Amino acid sequence: MRLVFSLKKAFLRLIPSSSCIATNFRKIPLYVKNCFEDICSDSAQYEAELHSTIRDLRDSVDIISYVRNIYLGCRVDYSEDRFKPVSMSETEKPATTAESTAHSTTIEEIQNHVTKTMEHLANVISSEDDRFACHVVPVGSAQEGTKIGCCDEFDYNFVLVNLSRICKVGYSPESPPGFVLLKASTPDYDEDLFNDNGTLNTRIVKFKFEALVKQILSSSHFCEATGFEFIVRNEENVLPCENVSTKLHTFIKLTAIQPVNGSHVMHHIFIDIVPALQMNDWWPEDARRQDLCQTGECLIVFTQPQNKYPWIG
Fold first, then answer.
1. Same domain, 105 and 251
2. Which class for 146: exposed (0-12), middle (13-18), buried (19 or more C-beta within 10 A)?
3. Which end of the chain has fewer CB atoms at under 10 Å, N or C?
4. Are residues 131 and 242 in the same domain?
């Protein structure tokens, strides 16, 4: 089923400002023209009239609620009937006066449900292979509260805590700006993840991390524990240039197998998982505002510089 949502409500909320513009439709262009007309001897008068019209436009609506209403109008309303289970009785349906609250609550519940699912995934990863023990950091528009449309796209950083402890940041003359070398902090290191010279092999780390993630997602235990079913990605849609060396994230697609807050989630859930290291007491040498740098806030993601600097070996 293809999900289509309308922005009619957002357009209708433009009526207060549109009415003011329509009322002064002939005057506004004349005011602007006369304000910049050299031969006009009374440009100050027209400028004052233009400012008065603009003030009337601003005063005609509450700016904060006006912008917020447009934002809310661009989000899918999960309280509508098409999201409700067929078996739901009339007494279980939310009251009309509470529809907006139910709509907002459903969006929050979907986000909370996805976050708990990612935390469950991180816990299973940690138990399966302690080299990739991790915790989840939500990021992106969903976390910032700026996501519009469907509540269907999420981004998470998976901070590899154990790997972070055994790595240190190094520099090389070959490293372009924004790139560093990750070296083993002790003489004894995992030869499966590090090269012979003690440099972390980020390709291998990403390969193994992504394989472990998809192995867990494909298990029946994950589906039973989270209420989400993993959908294998159609490899035909993968761009030829998208390979393990250049991409930062692992893309996964899930579908909800049960209602959330009494509403069917009829669209897929798309999630970008980014493995990262957290290097405490370290910041890039070229950080512009060292006074704003906070310990633990700098995350290093895995990628190779060849995509941007193809001449580097």
1. yes
2. exposed
3. C
4. yes
Instruction: Name the pairing type of β-strands 134-139 and 269-278.
Output: unpaired
Question: Are 63 and 108 members of one domain?
Answer: no
pTM of the model: 0.70
The boundaries of the domain holding residue 63 are: 8-74
Q: Give 155's strand partners.
A: 139, 272
Q: 110-124, 126-140, 242-256: which range is least confident on average?
A: 242-256
Identify the CATH number of the domain in which residue 239 sits. 3.30.460.90
**Mean pLDDT of the region 30-38:** 63
Whether 91 shows a pLDDT value over 80: the answer reads no
What are the helix and strand counts (H, E) for the chain? Answer: 10, 8
| Residues contacting 295, CB < 8 A, separation 6+ | 280, 281
**Amino acid at site 108:** E
* pLDDT band (50, 70, 90) for residue 160: very high
